[in-house]
Amino acid sequence: MNFTKMHGLGNDFIILNQLADTQQDYVKLAQILCDRNTGIGGDGILLILPSTIADIKMRILNIDGSEAEMCGNGIRCFAKYLYEHDILKKTTFSVETKAGIIKPSLQIADQRVKQITIDMGQPILERDQIPMIGPKGQVIDEILDVAGQEYKITSVLMGVPHTMLFVEDITAIDPSVLGPKLEKHHKFPQNTNVNFVQVIDKHTIKVKTWERGAGATLACGTGCCASVVASYLNDFTEDTVDVQVKLGTLHIEYRPNESVMMTGSAIEVFSGIYDIK
Ligand SMILES: N[C@@H](CCC[C@H](N)C(=O)O)C(=O)O
């Protein structure tokens, strides 16, 4: 099976072109290929598939085999791969995802994709659509009991469910301590991604993420977008924010009542052939 390994700020994916040759058991395939000891290694697999309603379709499966509706870092990798491997030689196009149609725009120099801007659509703020159990309304700066301790959370659906906690010092945060407890908290029937956010100034935040189905990753695109929305809703930042993660920065613009625009890079690491026994 031919594959290409890519990453967006260290959030790494195995890209599989399934336009002609479709496999059946993607759940098992994701678990096998993403294993960092016995497989290729990755936070998830990205499937390139034909679409009847958009130029192309993307599916994402996490390392544990669960399927996500969307992936922000993944779709930048996906868009760059399509252009540089001559599958879709367009600088703007539409991608069918389980979270709806997403539109990437590519910035090209010397025939290479330098930056990718993704129109991530509107964040959904209504609790029942995140989904989170509780009274009607939005989840902004709300107290949640997690294993006997109270935390202030803000939650949104940014293609996938995200919960944000604002912290004083991100360097003191290990996402694997609270992350798994919040990810599977009973109030989130579809689980939630968890982002720890430190506000630096009105235009800069730092984020660490614990991902649903993947654990602690080096970055999360939808998580960075959701963190910008949450920072704006809590009046900590303006609508244009640089989000710093361990390996770099995403530039995010929140246009309330319109879209969240995310701009960043993607890197191709290597290609190969995996022998499926
Ligand atoms: N890393 C991604 C999000 C991938 C999906 C997530 N693990 C989930 O299951 O919700 C991103 O960059 O957005």
TrEMBL record:
Binding site residues for substrate: 11, 62, 72-73, 193, 211-212, 221-222
One GO cellular component, as annotated: cytosol
Compartments where found: Cytoplasm
Active site per UniProt: 71, 220
EC number from the UniProt entry: 5.1.1.7
Top-rank EC class of the record's enzyme: isomerase
Molecular function terms, GO-annotated: diaminopimelate epimerase activity
Principal location class: cytoplasm
Protein role: Catalyzes the stereoinversion of LL-2,6-diaminopimelate (L,L-DAP) to meso-diaminopimelate (meso-DAP), a precursor of L-lysine and an essential component of the bacterial peptidoglycan.
Family: Belongs to the diaminopimelate epimerase family.
Description of how the protein assembles with itself and partners: Homodimer.
Pathway(s) per entry: Amino-acid biosynthesis; L-lysine biosynthesis via DAP pathway; DL-2,6-diaminopimelate from LL-2,6-diaminopimelate: step 1/1
Organism whose genome encodes this protein: Propionispira arboris
Catalysis: reaction(s): (2S,6S)-2,6-diaminopimelate = meso-2,6-diaminopimelate
The name this protein goes by in its record: Diaminopimelate epimerase
The keyword Phosphoprotein is annotated on this UniProt entry: no
A Pfam short name: DAP_epimerase
Xref: HAMAP family: DAP_epimerase
NCBIfam families in the record: DapF
GO aspect biological process, one term: lysine biosynthetic process via diaminopimelate
Site (Could be important to modulate the pK values of the two catalytic cysteine residues): 162, 211
Alphabetically ordered keywords of this record: Amino-acid biosynthesis, Cytoplasm, Isomerase, Lysine biosynthesis
InterPro entries named in the record: DAP_epimerase_AS, DAP_epimerase_DapF
PROSITE patterns the record matches: DAP_EPIMERASE
Glycosyltransferase as UniProt keyword: no
